[in-house]
Amino acid sequence: MSETINKIKNQNAVIGVVGLGYVGLPLILAYTAKGYRCIGYDIDQTKIDAIQAGESYIDHIPSEPMKKAVDEGLLEATIDFTRIGESDAVIMAVPTPLNKHFEPDLSYVTNTMEAVAPYLRKGQIVSLESTTYPGTCDEELKPRIEAQGFTVGEDIYLVYSPEREDPGNANFSSHNIPKVVGGTTPACAEHGKELYEAAISSVVPVSSTQVAEFTKLLENIYRAVNIGLVNELKIAADAMGIDIWEVINAAATKPFGFKAFYPGPGLGGHCIPIDPFYLTWKAREFGIHTRFIELAGEINRSMPKYVIRGTMEALNKRQKALNGSKVLLMGLAYKEDVDDLRESPTFELMDLLKAQGSVVDFYDPHIPVINATREHAAWTGYKSVKWNKEIIGNYDAVIIATHHKVFNLVELVEWADLIVDTRNALAKSGIQGKLGQVTKS
Predict the structure, then answer these.
(1) Coil, strand or helix at 179
(2) What is the mean pLDDT of residues 380-384?
(3) 38 assigned to active site
(4) 435 pLDDT exceeds 80?
(5) Measured between alpha carbons, how far is 28 from 42 in angstroms, rounded to an integer?
(6) What strand order describes the sheet that includes 438-440?
(7) pTM, 2 dp
(8) What sections of 170-274 are H helices per DSSP?
(9) Angle at the Cα of 179 (from 176 to 181), degrees rounded to 5?
(10) Catalytic pick from 38, 137, 188, 271?
(11) What are the structural domains, with CATH classification, of the chain?
(12) Are 345 and 267 contacting, i.e. CB atoms less than 8 angstroms apart?
């Protein structure tokens, strides 16, 4: 048994997490909850300051466990990567976006590895959690580690364990979502298993980092393809005058062989809109054209335009043009009841409306102001409107893009002239709109 495993078993290991966002922060708190001393590393000083003050900067993560961990000396955060050597495990949870050509952008992973590598020491576990294509650990991380004179599997233990966070999910969080772990060598796999069993209730070992990398892609491709299917069926159902939501709910009564997926205004979040294209890109290296995945992506990316067309048609029936109309987007977050903006389709709806000459605002109590984002810098600083009858009644159309539980839909129906409901929010809430007021798109 290695010294590193002994330290983990005895709770003497120091756990380092690089990247303190929606994945890294809950993960580090899962370890502090088990009594491990943890160091968080990030390049964003505002996150470091917030952690040191015991204050959460993510809506669905309470400050209390963070403050408790800081007060007990179990948690600290730093921008100083020269302190990497203090950690017995270095877990990297950084973004893996796409570039403008829908190709993997591994710059965050490779830049982080290059920042970490000079300060590694023998006996450390290095784990990547960022979603990526099969082969990333072997092709990108291993050479950078070995360039420092280490032998992976003997000096450094390299593993891949994909994140499975679901922001806002009250039933599942870092500590009780089963953790898939694959190692570069059997020794790496053993160390990775011990690392994650220290804080996670169930660990699922697999035979290699490639299998673990592919597993994460399968999970999200499965969802993306099924959402693409139901989005296409929605368009067909609309043309036939059939309520696709009623169809899905009826089909979902079958106790086997069917899982309900629902249409929407587009895909959001860091995973589903992006991850499938990591496999698509890698498959081309082997002469494989993943047509099914690409078709689903094409359909899902078309949905914001479909919503705008539906809004335009609804306004036309009122003898109004989209150009010059005031339009309110309800829900900026990509999913309900969180403050997560990543890849939110609401941004594209806003861009499309603005391009058509609309006056665009948004309302989201979880996001009072839009902070800087990589893809939508033009909206930085825009503030959520206030919720009152005078303001809401002044819009020509209100589009429900995300269905937050805090929304007062009864007041919305009372105040708004036209509602475009992309989430079936009113029907799910048992609220009936006025005749001709609600358009499902």
Answers:
(1) strand
(2) 95
(3) no
(4) no
(5) 13
(6) 359-363, 326-330, 397-400, 419-421, 438-440
(7) 0.92
(8) 186-197, 209-240, 244-251
(9) 160
(10) 271
(11) 3-207 (3.40.50.720), 222-440 (3.40.50.720)
(12) yes
